[in-house]
Write a structure and sequence with these properties.
Shape: globular
CATH topology: Rossmann fold
Strand order of the largest sheet: 3-2-1-4-5-7-6
Helix content: 40-55%
Number of helices: 11
Order of helices and strands: HHHEHEHEEHEHHHEEHH
Largest sheet: 7 strands, mixed
CATH architecture: 3-Layer(aba) Sandwich
Radius of gyration: 18 Å
CATH class: Alpha Beta
Distance between the termini: 18 Å
Structural class: alpha/beta
Number of strands: 7
Bound molecules: S-adenosylmethionine
Length: 292
């Protein structure tokens, strides 16, 4: 249910002519043990990230083909990438991550769940070292771009995405978008006030470290393939989605749709409602709605 206070925040954001300054994450690489444990727990069934993980898993599955190579930039503990890899067992996934602690969590997950089509590499997501030109079928990322230190590094990252991606490759990058007003950020932090203190602090750092929409759009236009689109949700532009469809033409199989439906059914009422909000708000701005 959309509240009046959210509509007020959305209108104030829309009409605001100012833009707060971005503040980079105090810890660009998440290598603090407590922070890693806390972040990983947000991907567990009762965590705050489950609904966006389901949304992203569906969107990525729509974009990729069997036996292709997919790079995930800033994979963290692999909560999301391992889900995507399980939905797409015929596709190969490489997760790039600089935090040894996150990589250890992800590797433990890969082993425990016996995932044979996903590997983690200790590598900088802005450099994409070791990947030759036009060798990758899809580049994906979730909640990681805002961990880059500055626009210069983001520029390097986008140049390298364009370099390693095949001509008909797909792109799906989703992250926070920098809101224009400090009050809007406070509003979203207050909405999660029941979350653990550590999570709230990381959330507030992330919202302030997001890149501004205008800079993102400019770099997308300058470096990514011409048919790459930028979307924000209708109402309050809290997220940004950078999407290139690539070559996939086959619709999802009934079996895959069934798996997504089951995952949706298993979510808590709060997560179901968040999923519907993400789905609807992007659909109202032109991203095809997911029917689950
Ligand atoms: C907020 S987490 C997101 C994890 C995951 N993608 C998800 O959605 O759950 C961002 C991750 O990016 C990693 N990171 C930061 N800078 C990086 C870089 N230059 N190259 C690779 N990973 C990086 C951090 O260590 C952190 O684990």
């Amino acid at each position: 249910m959309i509240s009046l206070s959210l509509i007020k925040v959305a209108l104030q954001e829309y009409f605001s002519s100012s833009q707060i300054l971005r503040r980079p994450e105090p810890r660009l690489v998440m290598d603090d043990d407590d922070q890693v444990i806390q972040f990983d727990s947000e991907g567990e069934p009762s965590g705050n990230l489950v609904s966006s993980y389901l949304y992203i898993s569906f969107r990525v599955t729509e974009l990729i083909n069997e036996s292709s190579l997919v790079l995930d930039l800033g994979s963290g503990s692999g909560q999301l990438l391992s889900r995507i890899a399980r939905y797409n067992p015929q596709t190969n996934f490489i997760g790039l991550e600089l935090s040894p602690q996150m990589i250890a969590f992800a590797n433990e997950r890969i082993q425990r769940q016996q995932i044979s089509n996903m590997e983690m590499r200790h590598q900088d997501m802005s450099l994409l070292d070791g990947f030759s030109d036009k060798s990758v079928d899809a580049i994906i990322s979730s909640l990681a771009i805002h961990h880059l230190p500055d626009l210069k590094t983001l520029e390097v990252c986008f140049k390298n995405i364009a370099r390693v991606l095949k001509d008909d490759g797909s792109i799906f990058l989703m992250d926070f978008n920098l809101l224009k007003r400090e009050e809007s950020i406070e509003y979203f932090i207050n909405c999660e006030s029941k979350s653990p203190r550590r999570s709230l602090r990381d959330y507030s750092y992330s919202l302030r470290a997001a890149f501004p929409l205008a800079s993102m759009k400019e770099l997308v236009t300058r470096y990514l393939p011409k048919d790459t689109c930028v979307y924000t949700p209708f109402g309050c532009p809290f997220f940004i989605m950078i999407l290139r469809k690539g070559r996939k033409t086959e619709p999802l199989t009934q079996d895959k749709i069934k798996q997504f439906k089951e995952a949706f059914k298993g979510m808590s009422p709060k997560n179901k409602s968040t999923f519907r909000e993400i789905n609807l708000s992007f659909a109202l701005n032109g991203v095809r709605k997911i029917a689950l």
